[in-house]
Amino acid sequence: QLQLVESGGGLVQPGGSLRLSCAASGFTLYYYAIGWFRQAPGKEREGVSCISSSGGSTNYLDSVKGRFTLSRDNAKNMVYLQMNSLKPEDTAVYYCAARRTICSGNVPAYNYWGQGTQVTVSS
After folding, report:
1. How far is CA 58 from the centre of its chain?
2. pLDDT, tens digit, for every residue of 71-81?
3. 58 bridge partner residues
């Protein structure tokens, strides 16, 4: 069974850091671009960051540039989203998703999704 599982979410104070992980089972991430999306209550799901299958290309939502870093370890079949200087507006459920090769900012373009992990930034 093809599956993505996120972990690493939690409650953090403003200015704090979290590292989200996305683990794949049942398939290798080597051929897939991995996107991170988030969805806050009452809002649409939005793309946060994406890394191409080779790792040679990454992109970020403007509001997270300079604070979030996306990386991948294909040998471990893992992708990581390092989130620093977190703000209350970063509060959302974060999802990782996979599609072949190149990134897309469109939710329907992704074939596989994790169940999400909650990130709450609050004092």
Report:
1. 12
2. 999 899 999 99
3. 51
